[in-house]
Specification:
41% of the residues lie in helices and 16% in strands. The protein is of the alpha/beta class and 408 residues long.
């Protein structure tokens, strides 16, 4: 094994140890937070290895990026691929890179934990892509990162909010969405003002991203001295039973944490069980798949809002997506569009060289995308402030801050 790979492996171990130290030093209501021995977010790890000296290949006919995610036929994640195609069309109308078109090489597995990493390795080593876009969530981003860390090429995730994906201190790992550690405190502050001393229950799906968000939520709640009364972890088979228990309990609000489809099923189960109180959610409430399934059950629900089109004009991303596909894009679509655009901007700045593309991604921050501003912290995680959203007439809109003690 070469020296750069040994260093990379040590960085991964050090990042994991840093995360563990941070967990051990977490504050309790009666004890201030201990100062961590090493805080990874206070120090940027720069890549000092080989690669920048490699000349640009002379005879390529296209610029190839890997795409780790499902295609357009996927009912929950297909919009991301559609948005990526819009980005490619826009870039290639502008001349691509020195007359060469940009193209995406897709790779995916319906069982990512079984052979997802091999799909990324096929792109990286078999087709020599210049960078990889993926994954569509935190769990699959971790898989792709395992390959990117060894291959030393940029990985831009449009779907991960799991901050631990960046805690490995890999200098070519970038997350376009604000992490759970930025989303959770905003929601906790809203809950504390809205519920006051009222009890909160958590209804949690059995998936990686939901667990990570609830972990950050509980940390923020502890710091704010806001208590969670009950927590129920449910599967598709047990969601009705858990919802019934919550409906019979004396709670002022319920936090629903899961992917878009699972969250819609949990919200529907709560309403069927007779629960009529306030519902709060994760950013997944802003996904089109959630809105399609939850309908009126999710009216007035409050959640971290990661994308709101605003006034971007007729040639903006949202308008073009709407004209092409007939409906509004969600934050995953917008962030995937940005991932393609940002990587193209990096190539145009530094040329076809993996190491220098990584340098360019750092240098381009802050960068304005369709999904919002991209401004990296020292670990390649986006620091964009998070606002809250709610659902009105089946549409996502920004949420106004409630008065203290308000129950609505």
């Amino acid at each position: 094994m070469t020296r750069p790979l040994r260093l990379g492996a040590w960085v991964l171990v050090a990042g994991g140890l840093a995360a563990g130290v941070a967990l051990l030093g977490a504050a309790s209501p009666d004890r201030p937070a201990a100062k961590p021995f090493f805080d990874a977010r206070q120090r940027q790890t720069e890549y000092a290895g080989p690669g920048r000296e490699v000349p640009e290949p002379a005879h390529i006919t296209e610029v190839l990026f890997g795409y780790f995610g499902p295609g357009a036929d996927d009912p929950e994640l297909g919009d991301a691929w559609r948005a990526a195609q819009l980005a490619l069309e826009n870039l290639n109308r502008q001349g691509g890179y020195q007359g060469k078109p940009f193209r995406l090489l897709p790779g995916w597995s319906d069982q990512p934990w079984k052979d997802g990493a091999s799909q990324v390795a096929r792109m990286v080593y078999g087709h020599d892509v210049w960078a990889v876009i993926g994954g569509p969530d935190g769990a699959t981003t971790h898989l792709a990162e395992q390959v990117a860390a060894k291959a030393r090429l940029p990985l831009v995730s449009p779907g991960s909010t799991d901050r631990t994906a960046n805690l490995a201190n890999v200098p070519w790992m970038f997350s376009l969405l604000p992490g759970d550690h930025l989303e959770a405190p905003v929601l906790v502050e809203h809950l504390a003002a809205r519920l006051g001393s009222g009890a909160l229950a958590i209804l949690l799906a059995e998936d990686h991203d939901a667990r990570q968000f609830v972990l950050e939520f509980r940390r923020s709640a502890t710091r704010a001295r806001f208590q969670v009364a009950r927590q129920y972890v449910c599967s598709r088979e047990t969601v009705a039973e858990a919802a019934a228990k919550i409906a019979q309990a004396d709670v002022a609000g319920v936090l629903v944490a899961g992917g878009p489809t699972a969250s819609a099923a949990m919200v529907a189960a709560l309403r069927r069980a007779g629960y009529r109180g306030a519902i709060f959610g994760t950013a997944a409430f802003g996904r089109r798949a959630f809105l399609q399934k939850a309908a009126e059950d999710a009216r007035d629900a409050v959640f971290p809002l990661l994308y709101f089109p605003g006034a971007e004009g007729p040639e903006g991303f949202a308008a073009r997506f709407r004209r092409r596909y007939g409906y509004e894009p969600d934050y995953l679509a917008a962030a995937t569009y940005d991932a393609v655009q940002l990587l193209a901007a990096a190539v145009r700045r530094e040329g076809l060289n993996r190491a220098r593309i990584g340098d360019a991604l750092w240098a381009l921050s802050p960068w304005q995308g369709a999904c919002g501003t991209v401004c990296w912290d020292k670990l390649g995680s986006n620091t964009r402030p998070v606002m809250l959203g709610t659902i009105r007439a089946g549409r996502v809109v920004p949420c106004e801050t409630p008065p203290a003690g308000s129950s609505r």
